[in-house]
Design a protein that fits this description.
- The complex is a heterodimer of chains A (368) and B (192).
- By secondary structure, chain A is of the alpha+beta class.
- Chain A is 50% helix and 13% strand.
- Chain A has 16 helices and eight strands.
- In chain A, strand 6 and strand 7 form a beta hairpin.
- Chain A is globular, with a radius of gyration of 20 Å.
- In chain A, 53% of the residues are buried.
- Chain B is an alpha+beta fold and 192 residues long.
- Chain B is built from seven helices and six strands; from the N terminus they run αβαββαβαβαβαα.
- In chain B, strand 2 and strand 3 form a beta hairpin.
- In chain B, helix 6 packs antiparallel against helix 7.
- The longest helix of chain B has 29 residues.
- Chain B is elongated, with a radius of gyration of 27 Å.
- The chains are: A alpha+beta (368), B alpha+beta (192).
- Chains A and B meet through helix 2, helix 5, helix 6 and helix 7 of A and helix 1 and helix 3 of B.
Chain lengths: 368, 192
């Protein structure tokens, strides 16, 4: 038996993540994930900051789609303090969160194919489309990745008509790109052989381990917080939840492609329905101007959103001071990693890379 | 049953098509999307934010900042350092003597801009701020941070003009409030 260390500087681990793998020949007979290399004390920092300032740090959790993190944290504090969100802001939130989902999914399938050896061509095609969305994020929020766009009971800047026109144009063009992307690879025999029946995760194991997001849905379990909780205004949109059958790597890859199509549907509906109006509740403007004067009532709240990686939850306990008494993040990347060993046992060492890639982890969120 | 390898060939067809179209299509329709920085540059969006700078009106002495220290206190990574200037009598002059921002610490969140009640600190568009030495090069002092209102108007026209209008209105209100009071105290005709 041979024990080797994958990472923390291995390019396929998507960051500083280490797996201790026990091998028999090429077969994996044991795997231990080791994380903590990117630990930045996120929760402790947050417990020493005013509520509004924590928003800037949530961007740094899952840095591929900062807007989903913003959404989750804003929802939690609104629940805690009982704040109302204006109608237009609700729509803007959905639009931005779904755009962030598209950004995340095209990036992750690009990187996953990169891990497989489809070297950089699909990734750069995906990044070309991602760049258009990031340009929009820059124009609206001020930053490409660290958006810091949401605030309690609203958003910080309005979407102008020009921005909406850009999104509309993007939605019209996106299906063509997806078709091209699918023609490029989904029927590719090499890809199918490398992905199908690899890293199978049964629905039962996934549910027991608390797996969420596309990984769970690829195993055939119909669970999407957008449908279960219907947070924000997701109950107003008509969209489907794509499900996989086997729960192998290929299903996880394809569920994400299908989810992009559903996101496009939501975006299309949101763009036609979006009303005029204010983007932030007038009463909450003072939180932006004077963050230290915002003291939510004593109590606790748990808010969750369907981030592209799974259930992203924030647990905030207030003791009536400007800082939260306890702040906890339920990071989907970390919890989805717990079944890595089950998926990898009995597989070849080369497949461990692609199985890890298909879980879609971001170390900023895993280690916090 | 399709031929084995047909999917691979089809994929190759896509790359070949992209290779060809990259030569004659526009960037938006499948052409070359990359920009050859630094020879070519894309403009930045108005809302784009990078590092903070301080605005002055007219001359650098007329700095808007009154050294209240709100940004210093609210800055999440605590990268701002302010010291109040004292006048000859030792009283605070409502002006910063020292205003340092550590660009190495700053995380570009834009909170200083949001909390400033004096419209004095804003996020800049300049992104080429590389410096050879962390402690000296990246800690920017007041002199380097000060930029004119004209520059601000250039990079963020919509926001700058809105703020200019707001400041003008406030000033006129102040003047209007000061006028009757001064005419009264000077034993005027009492035009009330």
């Amino acid at each position: 038996m041979l024990e080797i260390n994958f990472g923390p500087q291995h390019p396929s681990t998507h960051g500083v993540f280490r797996m201790t793998v026990q091998l028999e020949g090429e077969k994996i007979c044991g795997l231990k994930p080791v994380f903590g290399y990117l630990h930045r004390n996120h929760e402790q920092i947050a417990e020493n900051l005013p509520y509004a300032a924590i928003m800037t740090y949530t961007d740094r959790l899952d840095y591929v789609n900062a807007l989903s993190n913003n959404f989750g944290y804003a929802l939690t504090v609104e629940k805690l303090a009982g704040l109302e969100v204006p109608e237009r802001a609700q729509y803007i939130r959905i639009i931005m969160a779904e755009l962030a989902r598209i950004v995340n999914h095209i990036a992750v399938i690009g990187f996953m194919l990169n891990d497989l050896g489809a070297f950089f061509t699909p990734l750069l095609y995906a990044f070309r489309e991602r760049e258009r969305i990031l340009d929009l994020f820059e124009a609206v929020t001020g930053s490409r990745l660290m958006n810091n766009y949401f605030c309690f009971s609203g958003v910080k800047r309005d979407l102008t008509d020009a921005n909406l026109a850009v999104i509309k144009k993007m939605i019209l063009k996106f299906p063509a790109f997806l078709e091209e992307f699918e023609a490029l690879l989904t029927k590719n025999e090499i890809l199918c052989m490398r992905c199908q029946n690899i890293g199978i995760l049964s629905g039962e194991t996934a549910t027991n381990a608390g797996i969420t997001g596309p990984v769970l849905r690829a195993s055939g379990v119909n669970y999407d917080i957008r449908k279960v909780d219907r947070y924000g205004i997701y109950d107003r949109f008509d969209f489907k939840i794509p499900l996989g059958q086997k729960g192998d790597v290929y299903d996880r890859f394809y569920v994400r492609v299908l989810e992009i199509r559903e996101s496009l549907k939501i975006l299309d509906q949101a763009l036609t329905q979006i009303p005029q109006g204010e983007i932030i509740n007038k009463k909450s403007l003072s939180i932006l101007k004077m963050p230290r004067n915002f003291k939510p009532p004593v109590g606790e709240a748990y808010g969750r959103v369907e981030s592209p990686k799974g259930e992203l939850g924030f647990y905030v306990v207030s003791d009536g001071t400007p800082q939260p008494w306890r702040y906890h993040v339920r990071a989907p990347s970390l919890i989805n990693l717990t079944v890595l060993e089950e998926m990898c046992l009995g597989q070849k060492i080369a497949d461990a890379i692609i199985i890890l890639g298909s879980i879609d982890i971001v170390l900023g969120e895993t280690d916090r | 049953m399709t031929l084995f390898g047909w999917g691979v060939l089809k994929g190759m067809g896509v790359t070949f098509k992209n290779f060809l179209t990259s030569y004659f299509r526009k960037p938006d329709e499948g052409g070359i999307f990359t920009v050859q920085y630094p020879e070519e540059r894309e403009g930045t969006a108005e809302n784009y934010r990078n590092f903070p700078f301080l605005v002055y009106d007219g001359a650098p002495e007329k700095i808007r900042c009154v050294a209240c220290g709100i940004c210093e206190r609210e800055c999440p990574p605590k990268c701002i350092h302010i010291e109040m200037e004292l006048d000859a009598a030792g009283k605070p002059a409502r002006k910063p003597a020292v205003f340092d921002i550590d660009y190495g610490l700053c995380m570009n969140c834009g909170m200083c801009e949001e909390v400033c009640p004096f419209d004095s600190i804003f996020m800049d568009h300049a992104f080429e701020v590389a410096a050879p030495e962390r402690q000296i090069g990246l800690v920017r002092h007041k002199k380097e941070l000060l930029k004119s209102n004209e520059y601000f108007r250039e990079i963020r026209p919509a926001l700058a003009s809105a703020i200019d209008q707001k400041r003008k209105a406030v000033e006129e209100k102040k003047k209007a409030a000061a006028q009757p009071a001064s005419s009264q105290s000077s034993g005027g005709t009492g035009s009330l």
